[in-house]
Amino acid sequence: MSTEFEDAFVGRAKTRHFLRDDGPAPQPRAVTRQPGMPRVAIVHDWLVTYAGAERVLEQIIACFPEADIFSVVDFLEDRSFLRGKQAATSFIQKLPFARTRYRAYLPLMPLAIEQLDLSGYDLVISSSHAVAKGVLTGPDQVHVSYVHSPIRYAWDLQHQYLKQSNLTAGAKSLFARLILHYMRNWDIRTSNSVNHFIANSDFIARRIHKVYRRTSKVIFPPVDVASFEVCEQKEDFYLTASRMVPYKKIDLIVEAFARMPGRKLVVIGEGPDMAKIRAKATPNVEIMGYQPFAVLHDRMRRAKAFVFAAEEDFGISVVEAQACGTPVIAYGKGGALETVLDASHERPTGLFFNSQTPQAIIDAIDAFDSGALTFDPADCRANAERFSNSRFREALHAHISRMAPQFVLPPLPVEEAPEPPAIDEMQQAGLKVLAVDQSGALGGAELSMLEVVKNMRGDVQTVLFDDGPFRIALEAVGVKVDVLDGKSLDGMRKDGKARPGMNMLGGMLKLLRGTLERSRNADVIYVNTQRAMVIGAIAGLISRRPVVWHLRDIVSEEHFGRTQLAVIKWCTKLMLEHVIANSTASAAAVTALTRLREERLDVVFNGISAEPFTDIEAVAQHELRARFGLPRDAFLVGCFSRLARWKGQHVLLEALLESPDMHAVLVGAALFGEDAYETELRAYVDEHGLQDRVHFLGFQDDIAACMKAVDVVTHTSIMAEPFGRVIIEGMLSKRPVVATRAGGVMDIVEDGENGILCSPGDAAELARILDRLRKNQPLRERLVEQGYENATSRFGTERYVESVEKILVDVAERSRKRG
């Protein structure tokens, strides 16, 4: 809200003459009703996203499925939670820039909400945090208002919001205060037309009584606890997650952990306070920014505790954390007092601190870590169940029945009936996927795509822009493959330095024609690499097929040129239906570049099969070394990647100079015009007399055997890696892993627990770590044990394939419904 007040007050003067209505309200539907069953209207402030208030709306609709919906504006794209309903809207719907700047019309909203005609309904239910409760109703109508809060910025938080909006002095400040005075008067007046108030917490019930002098029934808002899974094994880090705005007090939490360097904090969220929060962060504080649900869920399940410093009306994230079996350390004021059970309860689920200061948070963390109070994940989950969707529906239904006994309400379902899995529906109809990749080589992106297409149900056809081992691997598992001639794109580089000539443009047109021809029979186009994405996106636009990009790159200036980034940005924004990112780092980069909406982006960690590694479990290491011509008794450090400068093989060679008792094994070839780098590596070996200690194995099909032949697996990239497949493979091979501290690696490795992290490009540090591992067998064994458990539990192929398949199915279903 840092600028919305200024926008709102300036906007009113510009739009006063646009007082036209958005057409007649929908008439009550002709449905078969039992005698006494009311005609129901549900009023919501505005429909632009799916957040906490919309979760309440979703469950109200579940209670009254035949109700009609009203709202000031309705710009939703995903209408699934409304069961496909379209809201009747106000004149603001048609005002200039209303889709993106609807808050600028706040001063007009009282007038707008009063223009909605609800005269044809018996029961009106408003879900209000701003103006929805102000709808006009008659003496024979029953109006029940579920209040998330009286208008915060007009009442007790006025001074805070004016300060945040830089409206504390001057003409704009005076105008803002006049508008807020008008809003307060209107808010009190319209409270008299509400028959029954419902508050979302005792805290809000007190606020309602303070402002309106009305009593209210407390019904806690619904939390989708079923979407969260309990994790019994907690890891050694704390989590906080929130939008970064002043009243959330994320800066206080970060400042507290900055004073506790031995404790790790993970911060998820974004907002106007991001720069201030980053400035306070120390190395033990990981600022992840915005993350999709899958990443938030993963961190919330594994965290030892969730830290919450805001004075919140309710605090859904606090309940979600407990649904994961994670205890909460919260500021002891507001809604948290009603959702967290402290030491005064028999089965506590958290503890409180009494002031919003870093020292109070430190004291609470100390108390938590002391072990004086123990927390059971099962107790946390049981407490969260009090706030489930079904509990909300039951309470709402029962309260309205008591307050309006003249009505016969529709019965509640016995339990929430989930929709049949979309995958099964699509498979019955025959889900058809066209998978597109630019390469014929078997790089990490191709291996990950191979895992998807060979296990996916339905009809999968693959198009490659080059021939090679990838085509052979696809055909070996029964996948249909067409190879198009993409050699004209060989000169196209990530850095964008190669300008497209006529030959390159002609080649792109040929690839486009070939992909377009094969896309016409597909339900969805699944593109795996950046060049394939561009061709696939254009083909999808022409053939009107949805396109899903599996992003396996960090799309930043570090990896791509400006031209390439511009192409990626606009293709993603305008032509792609959905993006699957392979790590939080990849997701953060594409979000920063494209401002992609949350609902169009998912993070799905790559899945790697353990089978190739378990198949050779019984083979002795000396036999594997003999197979590849490696010395039997040397301490071997393996590096597994294509030979490219940013992959950092030269760092390992430099570290070797400081570790005369170790050998390096380089597995990989120069795949994409990087032969000069391989020549440079070999020259370095010759120059420093390392011929007997460096073993170039080139490209190898059997990575599992190569990894089991070495003693340590290293990941040496000098730039942020999008994911780090080799790290998972190293863990599956039961070898200790050393990896660089950047990018997607941070999703995989917990330093000192399941691997060891080192600074990118620091050969001296890498040498010290490798020497320590060589001398410390117990450390190697512990890393192997934890690494294998991590790889099998979090990065298995079944979850990976199911996640990708479900996204493709959902995208195809949405496209069918639209078309």
Structure notes:
By secondary structure, the protein is an alpha/beta fold. It folds into four domains: 215 residues, Rossmann fold (3-Layer(aba) Sandwich), CATH 3.40.50; 163 residues, Glycogen Phosphorylase B (Rossmann fold); 205 residues, Glycogen Phosphorylase B (Rossmann fold), CATH 3.40.50.2000; 185 residues, Glycogen Phosphorylase B (Rossmann fold), CATH 3.40.50. Helix content is 41%, strand content 14%. It contains 31 helices and 25 strands. It has a seven-stranded parallel β-sheet with strand order 15-14-13-16-17-18-19, with helices on both faces. α22 links the parallel β18 and β19. α2 packs across α15 and α19 packs across α20. The protein is globular and about 95 Å long. It starts with a helix and ends with a helix. The N terminus is likely disordered.
In short:
The chain is of the alpha/beta class and 819 residues long. Helices cover 41% and strands 14% of the residues.
Overall outline? globular
The computed structural class is: alpha/beta
- How far apart the termini lie comes to 38 Å
Mean pLDDT figure: 86
Total domain count: 4
The whole-angstrom Rg is 30 Å
Q: β content, as a range?
A: 5-15%
Amount of helix: 40-55%
Number of strands: 25
Reported by name, the CATH topology of the largest domain is Rossmann fold
* Parts with pLDDT < 50 across at least 5 consecutive residues: 1-32, 416-429
